[in-house]
């Protein structure tokens, strides 16, 4: 059982609120999902959904109240030692470093804590800095306080890589990064997965997640509300594709023919100098829509100028799920 398997994990926080009063927050209310080995699995959800809590449980930093979780087949509770040996964790990209030491010195220090000898630690620190693109350009010789947030994020990932882990748990690794730095970190995460690592990444930015995740679990209020590949999720949620066609010589019959073979809705037609711009929404897939459009073109003898088929975005799926228009029973 490689990868990550989480089964019915529950976790509540009890905090004191004033004198004698207790407040219980159910952070995870029976979470189950799995991520195959070599996959980038994204845990996507709004603030307070339970993402960090789940990452901490998988990282053996927090005990679940009930349920069970395995990392590469090891139980995170009864085999925590084994789990720690094979994971790399990034919890907060801007914490955990000595500010007056350089990035290199920080990593040498952490590598020695992991049991490397001084010379091996230096070698390992250089290797991981190279891996994350921080070696050279004085980046590794700059004190940590002079690092940009993007460099800090990459240094955090470098630190997580010191032990060459087969599983990486990354809690919002691109939080607060600018577009360019976030792109670099995403590329790095993609490269790390290509080397065969299993990666769990959390976030709430759909655009980012869509770029790198091979599978996704959407979490909301401590529950997984949908899981699957990005494509899968969009399809299962029954989200509509937007189709834009520009045709010359089309008649009413053209649309009638299309609507006979695929269900379309919200049709808008604009005429301009003999060219019709037709916009409609369809549940059917690209091939089906193309086929029906081509058939209609042939029958009414019109000429197509342009055809655009827009897939629903992951953001559409996310909004549909998180806004409550969808429940896990459908998945
Ligand atoms: N130490 C704690 N004590 C009490 N409540 C907590 C604690 N840590 C988290 N919580 C609560 O548990 C719930 C889940 O928190 P968690 O940090 O796991 O969410 P998250 O999805 O990581 O959110 P964010 O996107 O803001 O990082 C929230 O309601 C949060 O307020
Ligand atoms: Mg969090």
TrEMBL record:
Keywords: ATP-binding, Nucleotide-binding, Transport. Pfam families: ABC_tran. The keyword Transcription does not apply. PROSITE patterns: ABC_TRANSPORTER_1, ABC_TRANSPORTER_2. GO terms for molecular function: ATP binding; ATP hydrolysis activity. InterPro entries: AAA+_ATPase (IPR003593), ABC_transporter-like_ATP-bd (IPR003439), ABC_transporter-like_CS (IPR017871), ABC_transporter_ATP-binding (IPR050763), P-loop_NTPase (IPR027417). Coiled coil: none annotated. Residues 4-246 form the ABC transporter domain. This is ABC transporter ATP-binding protein. It comes from Ignisphaera aggregans. The lineage of its organism: Archaea, Thermoproteota, Thermoprotei, Desulfurococcales, Desulfurococcaceae.
């Amino acid at each position: 059982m490689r990868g990550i398997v989480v089964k019915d994990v529950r976790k509540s926080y009890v905090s004191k609120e004033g004198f004698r009063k207790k407040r219980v927050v159910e952070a995870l209310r029976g979470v189950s999902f799995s991520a195959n080995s070599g996959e980038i699995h994204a845990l996507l959800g709004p603030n307070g959904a339970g993402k960090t809590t789940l990452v901490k449980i998988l990282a053996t930093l927090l005990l679940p109240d009930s349920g069970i979780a395995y990392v590469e087949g090891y139980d995170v509770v009864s085999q925590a030692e084994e789990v720690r040996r094979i994971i790399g964790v990034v919890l907060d990209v801007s914490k955990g470093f000595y500010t007056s030491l350089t990035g290199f010195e920080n990593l040498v220090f952490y590598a020695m804590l992991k049991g490397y000898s001084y010379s091996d630690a230096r070698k390992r620190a250089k290797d991981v800095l190279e891996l994350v693109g921080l070696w050279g350009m004085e980046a590794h010789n700059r004190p940590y306080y002079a690092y940009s947030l993007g460099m800090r994020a990459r240094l955090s990932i470098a630190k997580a890589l010191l032990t060459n882990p087969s599983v990486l748990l990354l809690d919002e690794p691109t939080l607060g990064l600018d577009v360019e730095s976030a792109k670099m970190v995403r590329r790095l995460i993609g490269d790390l997965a290509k080397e065969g690592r299993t990666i769990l990444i959390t976030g709430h930015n759909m655009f980012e997640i869509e770029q790198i995740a091979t599978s996704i679990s959407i979490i909301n209020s401590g529950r997984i509300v949908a899981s699957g590949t990005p494509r899968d999720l969009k399809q299962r949620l029954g989200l509509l594709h937007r189709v834009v066609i520009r045709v010359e010589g089309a008649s009413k019959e053209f649309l009638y023919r299309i609507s006979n073979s695929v269900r379309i809705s919200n049709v808008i037609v604009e005429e301009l100098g003999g060219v019709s711009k037709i916009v409609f929404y369809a549940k059917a897939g690209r091939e089906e829509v193309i086929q029906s459009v081509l058939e209609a073109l042939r029958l009414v003898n019109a000429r197509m100028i342009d055809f655009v088929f827009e897939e629903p975005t992951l953001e559409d799926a996310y909004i549909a799920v998180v806004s409550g228009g969808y429940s896990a029973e459908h998945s």
